[in-house]
C-alpha cells in the first residue's frame, strides 16, 4: 500500500487512479527474479539506494537535478547494492525519511538550482518491508543549473549541469546540453510563430496586447484580444447577474471601461501529421535495427527502449492516439492504454548504438 504523507512544493493534485499507477509502477520496478535478485537494473529513470540519510541530501539533490534535466525518474530507498536485493528501510532510515519537510526541501532546491524541480515523496510496503520513494518530474525549464556549491565535498558545484544517463548521474555532455538548448530555442520560436499566426488570423488592426508586467491592455480601436493559450484555458466567464463570491477563488479584475466585442475569433493549433515525424511502427523499428545488426535479440531491443524511456521521449517516439478523448485521458492519467507507439529513425540509431556499445559482437537472437 502506498502512503502519501507529503505534497510537492506547488501542491500538485493527483487522482486516486494516478496514485495507483505509481504504486503499480514501483512494485514493478522492484520486482524480484526467481533467484531473489531484482529484475530491473538502474537506468535513465531509476536509481536505487540502500538507506536514507538526511546527511546525504546533497547527493540526492544531484540526482534530482539529473532526472529533471532528462525525463524525470525515481529514487528508491531500501535496495541493497550488491547483490541487488530488497532489504527495506531500517527503523532509523524510515524515521529520517518521514522527517523530510517538503516545503523546506523545495525552497532549498530553489536556492541551489536555477529552475524549479517538482518532486513527490511517498512510502510503499511490500512483504513487510518499507521502501522510500522520491519521484522527480521532468523540468519545465531546462537546463537546471547549479547556482552554488553544496555538500561537504562540494557534491554540487556552482555552474554544473547534471544529467541522468543509463544507470548513472554525471555532468552533462555536450550533445545532450546542445539538444536541450536547441529544444528551448525551438519552443521559444514556436511561441512567436503561434502568436504571429493568431495576430494574422484576427488582423493586426483587430489585435490587442495584454501586458502582464504593466497590468494593462494596450490597443487602438481593436475589438479582438489575443491571449496565450494557457491563460485562455484558465479564464471563466460569469453571466451577468449570476456572480457568486467564492473565498480563495482567483480573480482577474478589469478596472475602467470595457468595450463590447463584436466578434471573437478562435485560432486552433493543429498538430502536424505524426506519421511524417514518426514513420516507424514497433515492428518496423525492430526490422530496421536488425538490418544494421542482423540477429539482434527482439527482447533486448524492447528492454533498451523501456530502460531508456524512449516511448515517453518525443525525440524518439510518440503515442498515436485515435481521437482527442484518448489524448486528453492520457494527459490526465499518463496511461497510454492500448494506443500504439510510433518511432522516429533516431530511435533506431539509439538502439543500434546501445547494442554496439554493449558488445563488439552481434547479439544472439532469443
Summarize this entry quickly.
This protein is of the alpha+beta class. It is 35% helix and 13% strand. The protein has helices spanning 16-29, 57-69, 91-97, 102-112, 174-202, 229-234, 274-277, 282-292, 298-307, 324-333, 345-358; strands at 2-3, 46-49, 73-77, 119-126, 129-136, 162-165, 168-171, 209-211, 216-218, 317-319, 341-343.
Task: Describe this entry's structure for a reader.
The model is unreliable at 1-17, 255-272 and 361-366 (pLDDT under 50). Helix 8 packs across helix 11. The protein folds into 3 domains: 2-170, Schlafen, AAA domain (Methyltransferase, Cobalt-precorrin-4 Transmethylase, Domain 2); 182-234, no CATH class; 274-358, no CATH class. It has a 5-stranded mixed sheet with strand order 1-4-5-3-2. It has a two-stranded antiparallel sheet with strand order 6-7. The protein is globular, with a radius of gyration of 24 Å. Strand 8 (209-211) and strand 9 form a beta hairpin. The protein has helices at residues 16-29, 57-69, 91-97, 102-112, 174-202, 229-234, 274-277, 282-292, 298-307, 324-333, 345-358; strands spanning 2-3, 46-49, 73-77, 119-126, 129-136, 162-165, 168-171, 209-211, 216-218, 317-319, 341-343. By secondary structure, the chain is an alpha+beta fold. Helix content is 35%, strand content 13%.
Topology, pairings included?
Layout: E1 2-3, H1 16-29, E2 46-49, H2 57-69, E3 73-77, H3 91-97, H4 102-112, E4 119-126, E5 129-136, E6 162-165, E7 168-171, H5 174-202, E8 209-211, E9 216-218, H6 229-234, H7 274-277, H8 282-292, H9 298-307, E10 317-319, H10 324-333, E11 341-343, H11 345-358
Parallel strand pairs: 2-3
Antiparallel strand pairs: 1-4, 3-5, 4-5, 6-7, 8-9, 10-11
Helix pairs in contact: 8-11
Amino acid at each position: 500500500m502506498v502512503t502519501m504523507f507529503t505534497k510537492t512544493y506547488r501542491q500538485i493534485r493527483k487522482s486516486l487512479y494516478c496514485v495507483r499507477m505509481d504504486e503499480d509502477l514501483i512494485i514493478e520496478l522492484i520486482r524480484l527474479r526467481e533467484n531473489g535478485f531484482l529484475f530491473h537494473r538502474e537506468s535513465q529513470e531509476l536509481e536505487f539506494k540502500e538507506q536514507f540519510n538526511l546527511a546525504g541530501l546533497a547527493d540526492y539533490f544531484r540526482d534530482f537535478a539529473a532526472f529533471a534535466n532528462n525525463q524525470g525518474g525515481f529514487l528508491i530507498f531500501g535496495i541493497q547494492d550488491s547483490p541487488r536485493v530488497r532489504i527495506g528501510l531500517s527503523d532509523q532510515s524510515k524515521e529520517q525519511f518521514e522527517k523530510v519537510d517538503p516545503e523546506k526541501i523545495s525552497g532549498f532546491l530553489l536556492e541551489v538550482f536555477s529552475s524549479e524541480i517538482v518532486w513527490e515523496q511517498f512510502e510503499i510496503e511490500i512483504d513487510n518491508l518499507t521502501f522510500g520513494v522520491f519521484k522527480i518530474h521532468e523540468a519545465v525549464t531546462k537546463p537546471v543549473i547549479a547556482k552554488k556549491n553544496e555538500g561537504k565535498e562540494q557534491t554540487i558545484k556552482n555552474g554544473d549541469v547534471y544529467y541522468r544517463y543509463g544507470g548513472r548521474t554525471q555532468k552533462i555532455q555536450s550533445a545532450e546540453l546542445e539538444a536541450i538548448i536547441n529544444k528551448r530555442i525551438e519552443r521559444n520560436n514556436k511561441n512567436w510563430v503561434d502568436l504571429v499566426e493568431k495576430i494574422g488570423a484576427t488582423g493586426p488592426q483587430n489585435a490587442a496586447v495584454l501586458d502582464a508586467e504593466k497590468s494593462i491592455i494596450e490597443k487602438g480601436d481593436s475589438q479582438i484580444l489575443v491571449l496565450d493559450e494557457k491563460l485562455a484555458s484558465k479564464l471563466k466567464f460569469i453571466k451577468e447577474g449570476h456572480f457568486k463570491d467564492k473565498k480563495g477563488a482567483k480573480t482577474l479584475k478589469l478596472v475602467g471601461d470595457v468595450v463590447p466585442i463584436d466578434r471573437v475569433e478562435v485560432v486552433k493549433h493543429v498538430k502536424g501529421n505524426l506519421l511524417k515525424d514518426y514513420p516507424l511502427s514497433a515492428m518496423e523499428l525492430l526490422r530496421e535495427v536488425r538490418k544494421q545488426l542482423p540477429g539482434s535479440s527482439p527482447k533486448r531491443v524492447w528492454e533498451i527502449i523501456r530502460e531508456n524511456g524512449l516511448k515517453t521521449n518525443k525525440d524518439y517516439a510518440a503515442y498515436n492516439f485515435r481521437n482527442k478523448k484518448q489524448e486528453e485521458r492520457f494527459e490526465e492519467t499518463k496511461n497510454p492504454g492500448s494506443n500504439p507507439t510510433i518511432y522516429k529513425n533516431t530511435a533506431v540509431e539509439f538502439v543500434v548504438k546501445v547494442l554496439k556499445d554493449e558488445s563488439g559482437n552481434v547479439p544472439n537472437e532469443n
